[in-house]
Write a structure and sequence with these properties.
By secondary structure, the protein is of the alpha+beta class. It has 19 helices and 16 strands. It has an eight-stranded mixed β-sheet with strand order 2-3-1-4-6-5-7-8, with helices on both faces. Strands 13-12-9-16-14-15 form a six-stranded mixed β-sheet, sandwiched between helices. The chain is elongated, with a radius of gyration of 26 Å.
Length: 560
């Protein structure tokens, strides 16, 4: 059951106050979400800042609620340190977009101060008295702003960072004057509102559009929730919301080029601090809007690039990247200043190359590593990022059907029309994408894509990890397994020979086009050999080859 906010008495900054702050912040961002999306013009006009902030706050609130549930099952009450750390961790692992990543680092800064405070001797509540001081809250907000600035590769004024800095300075002044925690929270809130109003004069992109900074607008809502949680008083007016209407301006030859990097790449990374320092330098040379947040071995990486594969590869060099999300900006930039697109495609794919291929075709790709299965929140997030009234979802695996259906149901509740095409392989998804018609009727498009996917037989080559019984007999570790439509059909010792055997069986029932998707360790010579094999035995069949990239299987085969 969702936590019901209980306003605290002034200066009572404890675990329950943090829980109330989180709930109120989530509610405030939910109310302002569409307004904030509408004024999102920097760094990319993709109309998703409000959504990203809300999803990040939702992840943080869920983690905090889980932490309270676990504590309730024990004997000791939740401590302030435990609460703020759980809240910050939830934001870190669920951060979305540039603004959400910065919000996650702001919460980490708060946790770095409040999470280290010792409680009174013999007290079960960590710092229930000492950490309630206004001075300590001011210190926490100051640390938050400092860490957020440090996380951004090239800080720009007139943004969410500027608003955070102004809030911290106002909080410090109130704390120095011996103000209560509620006094400090109010000062931070007022300072943030004042700074937000000045952002159009600090950043040309905002000034041209006649709007305030979208990320800063969200931060004002979060700080307003802090003041409400500590004072019990609801802000007199809704936090500065995105109601400004963009003002048409004459063409400016010096205006910022909106064509910047084509992709947004986000992933969680397990790595050392030293490795992350090298990663920052490498990613900084690949693109812009670089934000790396976190610590203690777990990081959230966000960057805009033209080569998403190189950005993920940099993460592999640094440590272990996972929950990788790649978004193509082309459609988002065009939608950013107007309404949602009519229709979009979301495709789950096992490989960086496939993700890039889908992105070039205009689809939103969900990249998965071998053996991973995206959860409902990841699929729902991709549907939201597609930013369309109608979405076609290509799950790419039978094991994803339940999650895809659940994500689609939640998206429908948000007003998005979603159809799930039961693709069981990436090659079926490629076949469906090839006939996708965004200008036709939704029903006809879904029928055509479903028919194309269903008419595509799919095969895959994998290497056995252990001895096992299969539908083709017993395999040993290291054997090459040739799967057709999900079942092992061939067991061999050589990749090329096994691939030829699989192709022969698949083409036995006919076909006009063979699609080959090569894994990262497979040489081009294999594709050449298989193309020659197909041409020799099936003159009327064409062959097309793609690189699946990192995380893809050694070989995927599609026959249409």
């Amino acid at each position: 059951m969702p936590h019901q906010p209980q306003p605290q008495a002034p200066d009572e900054l404890d675990a329950e106050a943090v829980r109330t702050w989180s709930s109120l912040a989530l509610a405030a961002l939910g109310r302002a979400r569409e307004d904030i999306d509408a004024i999102n013009v920097y760094p990319v006009a993709d109309a998703d800042t409000g959504t990203n902030l809300y999803l990040t706050a939702e992840s943080a609130d869920r983690a905090l609620d889980d932490a309270f549930t676990k504590v309730t099952e024990g004997t000791a009450p939740a401590s302030l340190a435990h609460a703020v750390r759980a809240w910050a961790h939830g934001a870190l692992v669920g951060a979305r977009g540039n603004s959400g990543t910065i919000l996650a680092q702001l919460l980490r800064g708060v946790a770095d101060v409040l999470g280290d405070e010792p409680g009174p001797a013999g007290s079960a509540e960590t710092g229930a008295a000492e950490t309630g001081s206004g001075a300590l809250l001011a210190q926490a907000l100051t640390r938050a702003a400092e860490e957020a600035y440090a996380a951004v590769s090239h800080p720009v004024e007139g943004t969410m960072l500027t608003v955070a800095g102004a809030a911290a300075r106002a909080a410090e002044a109130a704390g120095a004057a011996a103000g209560t925690a509620a006094d400090v929270a109010r000062a931070a809130y007022d300072g943030a509102r004042a700074a937000l109003a000045e952002t159009p004069g600090q950043l040309a992109a905002l000034g041209r559009a006649g709007v305030v900074d979208a990320g800063g607008c969200g931060l004002v809502a979060v700080l307003g929730a802090l003041w409400q949680a500590l004072s019990g008083q609801e802000p007199a007016a809704e936090p500065v919301r995105g109601r400004a209407v963009p003002v048409p301006q004459p063409a400016d030859p010096c205006a910022q080029d909106e064509e910047g990097p084509a992709y947004e790449v986000i992933y969680l990374l397990e790595a050392s601090e030293a490795a992350v320092g090298e990663l920052r330098e490498r990613l900084d040379g690949l693109g812009d809007s670089l934000v790396v947040v976190g610590g203690d071995g777990l990081w959230n990486v966000h960057v805009h690039v033209d080569d998403p594969g190189a950005a993920v590869e940099a993460g592999v060099v640094a440590g272990r990247p996972y929950r990788i999300r790649i978004t193509h900006f082309g459609d988002e930039r065009r939608r950013g200043r107007g309404e949602r697109a009519q229709r979009a495609v979301v495709a789950v794919v096992p490989g960086e190359g496939l993700a890039g291929l889908c992105g070039e075709a205009g689809a939103t790709a969900v990249l998965v590593r071998s053996g991973e299965v995206p959860a409902v929140p990841e699929l729902l997030d991709a549907i939201r990022r597609a930013h369309a009234r109608e979405v076609v979802l290509l799950p790419g695996g039978a094991e994803l059907r339940a999650a895809a259906a659940a994500a689609a149901e939640q998206a429908r509740a948000e007003g998005v029309r979603v159809a799930v095409i039961p693709t069981r392989s990436a090659v079926q998804g490629l076949a469906a994408l090839a006939v996708h018609d965004p200008d036709g009727s939704f029903d006809e498009d879904v029928v055509a894509m479903t028919a194309a996917a269903g008419a595509t037989r799919y095969g895959e080559l994998a290497v056995a990890e252990r001895q096992s019984f299969t539908s083709a007999g017993i395999c040993q570790a290291g054997d090459v397994l040739g799967l057709i439509d999900g079942d092992v059909a061939v067991i061999g010792a050589d990749l090329a020979e096994t691939a030829e055997a699989v192709l022969e069986r698949m083409l036995g029932s006919g076909g006009e086009l063979v699609t080959l998707v090569l894994g990262p360790e497979v040489a081009d010579a294999l594709a050449e050999r298989l193309e020659a094999y197909v041409q020799h035995g099936h003159l009327a069949v064409d062959t097309v080859t793609y690189r699946g990239g990192r995380y893809s299987a050694p070989l995927l085969i599609g026959v249409e």
